[in-house]
Each structure stands twice: as C-alpha cells, then as structure tokens.
What we know:
The protein is an alpha+beta fold and 517 residues long.
Amino acid sequence: MGTTNKTDYTPASLFAGQAALPSYWLTRFVILRLLGLVYAVAFLVAINQVVPLIGENGLLPIGTYLKDVSYTYGSAGAGFVRLPTVFWFGHSDTALLTVGWIGFVLSLVVLAGYANAPLLTVLWFLYMSIVHAGQDWYGYGWEIQLTETGFLAIFLCPLLDMRPFPKRPPPLPVIILFRWLIFRIMLGAGLIKYRGDKIWRDGTALYYYFQTQPIPGPLTRWFHFLPHPLLKIGVWFNWLAELAAPWFVFWPRVGRHIAGTVIVLLQVVLIISGNLSFLNWLTIIPALACFDDGFWARLLPHRLVCKAATAAENAEESKPMLTTSWIVAGLIALLSIQPVLNMLSPGQVMNSSFDPLDLVNTYGAFGSVGQERYNVVFEGTTGDTTGGKAIWKPYVYKYLPTLPDKSPPQIAPYQPHLDWQMWFAAMGTPEQYPWTYNLIYKLLHNDPDAISLFAANPFPDHPPRYIRAVLYRYTFAKPGNPQGLYWTMEKLVDWIPVLSADDMRLIKFLRSEEWVK
C-alpha cells in the first residue's frame, strides 16, 4: 500500500521541477523523429529526380561539373577538399541512385526511433554529397540548412546505442546549438525582408506573396483573397516570429516556450498556405529545442513519457560525449563569426555557406516579393509554324501552374526541382538558365528522363517538330467564376523562340557546353 507504480503518475508529474533543472530526453526524441522524416523526403526526391537532373545524360551532368571543379582547383583532390562529395569516387547513374536509396532506408530507421552518431554521420555526408553535386537544382537555402541541422544531430546521440531512450542524456551544449541555429534562421529571414523590400516594411507584402510564391497549394488562393487588414496582421505576425521571437530562444523557460510556439506557429501557417518544399518542416526542428521535457510531457503519449522518465532516472553521464559537445560548440562559435557579420551587414546575403562542409550558414527567404506572377511554359507542335498556323501543345508541369482550370495540389514537403527552377527562370532570361536549351533539345527527342519531369508527354507517339518557351502572366481567378478557372493567363513574349532538333545554333551551343557530342 505504501508503494506507487511509476505509471500511476500523471505525465506532467514525471518531469516536475523542469523550471529548475530541465531535461531534454523527449526533446531529443521529437527532434530526431522529425529529422528522420525530412531526410526521408529529401532522399526520396533525389531517388525520383537526380538522374534526369544531374545523371550521365541529365540536364546538368555531374561528370561535366566535377571535371570543371577539378580544373578550377587544379586536381580532383583539391576539388574534393573544396567540394566534399562521395561522387568524386564514382558518379554513374547507379551511384547516384545507390546513395539515394541508402539515405532513404537509413532515414526510415531514424524515423522509426533508432539513431546513433555513426548512422547520423552517414546520413549527413550522403546528403551533403548530393547537395554539393546538385548544382542549380540544390542551390536552395534549405539544402544547406538540412546539412547543418543533420551535423548538429550527430552529437545529440551516443556513439553506439541506437535506442530511442539510451542511457546517455542529451548534451545541453548541443541543445543550445540548435537554439543558436533557429536564432540565425529566423533573424536572418527577418533582416533580409526588412532590408530588402519596402512592401514588407509597409505591411503590404502579403497582398502579393500568395499569388507569386513559387508553387501555390490548394489553400493559397483562399489566403490571397483574405481582407487586406488580415493580410497586414499576417505581416506583423511575421515580424514577431522573425525579428522578436529569436531573441527569446535563450531566455528562461517561459520565454523560450513562448518564442518556440510563435516560431512553430508561423511555420505551420506557411505549410498550409503553400508548397515551400521541406523548408518549414526543417525549420521546426531547431525550434523544438526551445521546449523541455516538462512541456512535451503534456502533449505526448503517457507511455512514451514514462519511458523518457525511466531513462532520465537511470541516466549515466558520458564524459567523452559531453567533452565532444563542448568541442563542437567551440567550433560552431568560431565558424559563426562570418555568418553573424553577414547578418549585421547592410549588404546581407542569404542562403550562403562559409565553409566547405556547410557547418554554419546564413539564411533568409523572400527578401523581396514579386508583385506579378510569371511562368514559362514549354510548348511543342508537329505542324508548320509559318503564318501562325501551328497548333501548340503545352508541356504541363507536375505542380507549377500551367493550365488555367487546374487547381494546385499539396505536395510539400516533397520538392519538384524543375518546377522550382522554372519559377526562378521566369524572372530571368534563358542565358541565365542555359540548361533550358538542353531541356528543349531533349524534349525534341522525346527523351524519357526529361519527359519524366513533366506531368505528361503531349507527343507520346513521336517527337514534336518545333518547341518554344513562352512567358505568361498568371493571376488568381476569383473563386466561383462562371468559367471555373483557377488562373487567368496572358501571353507576353516568346522566352525562347522556336527551335527544332536540327537547328545548328542550338546544337553548336550544346556542344560547347559538352551536353551533346
């Protein structure tokens, strides 16, 4: 009668006293599970797209790229030091897919609850290898953000023990490094917006953001047509999350919890209002370090909380693990000097790395917001183009808006790389995106890898005679319009004029880039 079973306690009581001495067993558990999910999605994207993008016959072949890097730095060894990637040792299509599949399977292991330092080291290096070989397709901020997050996660875990709740507690220095990461991510994003575009400063950015963001989602149009006062409130909430909340992630418990909640809430809103790849899911991960076990004990299943409490009771501190975490903290502090100076600079750049391993980077998103949406649509024809008689058929993107009556699906955290790059390309010129000529050449030959990047092949029986790329202006059609349109589209100019498979100007250019023989 005098004994009480541990499972009779309420979840909150198992971690009483967290304000005085917080623990992070559940925090580590949640961080690693979400990291496993993001890794799994990222490697799945690579499995599906890396061959047509950077394969032996890809739009930007990895072999040509590594040869150029080797020439620039004097040797393959020097190239490896400057651009570490496993693909220096072999970069066939099979090698690319093998790395993708190994990473995907190991990610599922982490997602299932099992992780240690070697496993997370392998995941980190494999994904960094893809990023460093990915060229234009992997030049986004969230790619180096994933490598930085993955590197920190290595030191959350014991060397060998893979159990969800091992006997080694999470090192506090690493938890603090995660907070330092979310501080830089959010503050960098806020500063680049404040410096970059007056429509952020005057509170009108959301009048345009939803319509012009890269890949809209099923609710994006609804957000776009919200009353302007609500959209202005959204901008002020963005300032709260990006310029105010980061300063509180190092505060005592209540301040940290409020800051973490505000940051996570912003990411959730961004998730449901568009398709920003796995950026927002990834950004949530370091924000979770704001919360301790006392917080999680009120949210997670009782059985899980009890396991964490048992692990905490039987914990054994590892001096080598703690010493390593302090060494890593010192390294991160030194590597943070340039990113911090960049944030303080009026010439702030976003999404840049300052070391070959991408250990500490600078971040930011949507420093400026376009007020009109432009899309480039590739169109082909089998007919005679003289006198405007040809009937042009579009190559419909999988997710980027193309057809005016098609509503966008929810695809994030998955990322279609071609669709994203074509969103950027529509704001530039073909000369800034020369691989678009390689894409046209492949479409003129019904190349199956290139075709796989689109929703369907409008010329399944034989290739088109001609292809062009047309720049259109897209705007949201008002909901409930009689035509049932989701978009209205207006043709502006030919972004790339009509080309054929035997056009010697095209062939000569592709040969100069070593994309065809």
